[in-house]
C-alpha cells in the first residue's frame, strides 16, 4: 500500500531530481550501517593479515630494545626519557600502516552507499526527536521491526560463522601448547585474524539484504503525490498563466520594436492581406536586402497602415511575400535564392520614385518575379 502525506494523499509518484537534490542538501541520503561495519572490519582484518608480520617485527624490536636497557640509562633521567621517546616513535611507525589502512576504510565505508555528502542542516538539533509520542511511534514502527530482525540475523550469522571457523582449527588448537612460545603466540594471532576475516565476511549476507532494503525504503520515503509534483513544476517553471502572460508581453515588446523599424523600410511586399514583409536595402552598407518586419493577418494590416502613413510603397507579390515570410527572420538578410526576385521588386520601387519625382515614366504593372521551388509555400 502506498504511503500517504499529511493531507492523506497517496505517494505513488517517483521522486523528481529536484526532490532528491533537496533531500541531499539536507543530509538525507541512503545509508547502510551494516555495509559500513562489514567493510571496516573486513578491511581491518585483511590488513592485519597482510601487514601483521611487519607490525610484529617492529613491536618485537621495541620489546627487545626496552628489555636491554643498560645500567647507566636506568639511573639517568634524561636517558630514560630518550629511551621511552624512541620506543614510542618506533611503536607509532610500526603501527602506522595499520592505522592508515583503517582510517582510509573508515572514510570510504560510509560513502560506499549514497556517496560523499556534507550538510550543515544534518548537524542541527531536531527537537522533534524529543517528543515521547513520536519516539513510541518509531519504537513500534515497521523500520524498528526490520532492524530487530536484522539484529537477530546478524547474531545468528556471526555466531554460526565463529563456530564453523573455530571448528576448522579445532584439531590444531591443542598442539599450540607443545609449540615454542614465540611460534605458538604467532600462530594464535594468525588464527584469530582468520576468525575475524571470516566473521566479517559473513556479514556480506546481511549487507546483500540490507542495501537493497535501504534503497527501497529511501525511494519509498522520497515518493511524491501528484499534487506535490504539480506544485514543484509550478514553483520551478512558474504558473502556466504567468508564463503565458510573460510570453504575451515579450511578443508585444518585440512587435513594438519591429513596428518602429517599419518607417525605415524601402518597400512592403504583401499577400495582399494575409502576409506583409518590410524590406530595406542600402547598397553602401548592406550586402543584401534586410528584413525589418513581418507579420500575418492583423499584424500584416498594422504594417500596411504604418507604411501608408509614411508613404512607403506597398506591392502585392503574394509568392514572394510568403517566401520571405517563411525563410527569413527579422533582422536577417534575405536568402541568396531570392536575390533576383527581390532585385526586380526594388528596381520597380526605384522606378516608381523616379516617376514620382518627374524624372521618368511610370513603370506600369508591378513585376511578378519567379520564385525558386524550394521557397514556394
Automatic annotation (TrEMBL):
Keywords: Bacterial flagellum biogenesis, Bacterial flagellum protein export, Cell membrane, Cell projection, Cilium, Flagellum, Membrane, Protein transport, Transmembrane, Transmembrane helix, Transport
Residue segments, region Disordered: 1-29, 358-377
Keyword Protein transport listed: yes
Residues passing through the membrane, by range: 39-63, 92-116, 148-169, 191-213
GO-annotated biological processes: bacterial-type flagellum assembly; protein secretion
Membrane association type: Multi-pass membrane protein
UniProt subcellular location: Cell membrane
Pfam families attached to this UniProt entry: Bac_export_2
InterPro entries from the UniProt entry: FlhB, T3SS_substrate_exporter, T3SS_substrate_exporter_C
One annotated Gene Ontology cellular component of this protein: plasma membrane
Function: Required for formation of the rod structure in the basal body of the flagellar apparatus. Together with FliI and FliH, may constitute the export apparatus of flagellin.
Family: Belongs to the type III secretion exporter family.
Entry protein name: Flagellar biosynthetic protein FlhB
Native source organism of the sequence: Oceanospirillum multiglobuliferum
Amino acid at each position: 500500500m502506498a504511503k500517504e502525506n499529511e493531507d492523506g494523499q497517496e505517494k505513488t509518484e517517483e521522486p523528481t531530481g529536484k526532490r532528491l537534490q533537496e533531500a541531499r542538501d539536507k543530509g538525507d541520503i541512503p545509508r547502510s550501517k551494516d555495509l559500513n561495519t562489514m567493510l571496516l572490519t573486513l578491511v581491518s582484518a585483511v590488513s592485519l593479515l597482510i601487514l601483521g608480520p611487519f607490525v610484529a617485527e617492529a613491536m618485537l624490536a621495541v620489546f627487545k630494545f626496552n628489555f636491554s636497557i643498560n645500567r647507566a640509562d636506568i639511573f639517568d633521567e634524561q636517558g630514560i626519557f630518550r629511551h621511552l621517546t624512541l620506543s614510542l616513535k618506533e611503536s607509532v611507525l610500526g603501527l602506522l600502516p595499520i592505522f592508515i589502512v583503517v582510517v582510509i576504510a573508515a572514510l570510504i565505508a560510509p560513502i560506499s552507499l549514497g556517496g560523499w555528502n556534507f550538510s550543515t542542516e544534518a548537524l542541527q538539533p531536531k527537537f522533534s526527536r524529543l517528543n515521547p509520542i513520536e519516539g513510541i511511534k518509531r519504537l513500534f514502527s515497521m523500520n524498528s521491526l526490520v532492524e530487530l530482525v536484522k539484529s537477530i540475523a546478524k547474531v545468528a550469522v556471526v555466531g554460526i560463522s565463529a563456530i564453523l571457523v573455530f571448528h576448522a582449527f579445532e584439531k590444531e588448537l591443542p598442539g599450540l601448547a607443545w609449540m615454542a612460545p614465540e611460534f605458538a603466540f604467532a600462530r594464535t594471532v594468525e588464527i584469530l585474524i582468520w576468525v575475524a576475516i571470516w566473521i566479517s565476511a559473513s556479514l556480506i549476507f546481511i549487507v546483500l539484504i540490507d542495501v537493497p532494503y535501504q534503497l527501497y525504503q529511501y525511494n519509498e520515503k522520497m515518493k511524491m503525490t501528484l499534487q506535490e509534483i504539480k506544485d514543484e513544476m509550478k514553483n520551478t517553471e512558474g504558473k502556466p498563466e504567468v508564463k503565458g502572460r510573460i510570453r504575451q508581453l515579450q511578443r508585444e515588446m518585440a512587435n513594438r520594436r519591429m513596428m518602429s523599424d517599419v518607417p525605415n523600410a524601402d518597400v512592403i511586399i504583401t499577400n495582399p492581406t494575409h502576409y506583409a514583409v518590410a524590406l530595406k536595402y542600402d547598397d553602401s552598407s548592406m550586402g543584401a536586402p534586410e528584413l525589418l518586419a513581418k507579420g500575418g493577418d492583423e499584424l500584416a494590416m498594422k504594417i500596411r497602415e504604418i507604411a501608408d502613413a509614411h508613404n512607403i510603397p506597398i506591392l502585392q507579390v503574394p509568392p514572394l511575400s510568403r517566401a520571405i515570410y517563411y525563410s527569413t527572420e527579422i533582422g536577417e538578410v534575405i536568402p541568396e535564392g531570392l536575390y533576383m526576385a527581390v532585385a526586380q521588386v526594388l528596381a520597380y520601387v526605384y522606378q516608381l520614385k523616379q516617376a514620382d519625382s518627374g524624372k521618368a515614366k511610370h513603370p506600369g504593372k508591378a513585376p511578378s518575379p519567379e520564385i525558386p521551388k524550394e521557397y514556394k509555400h
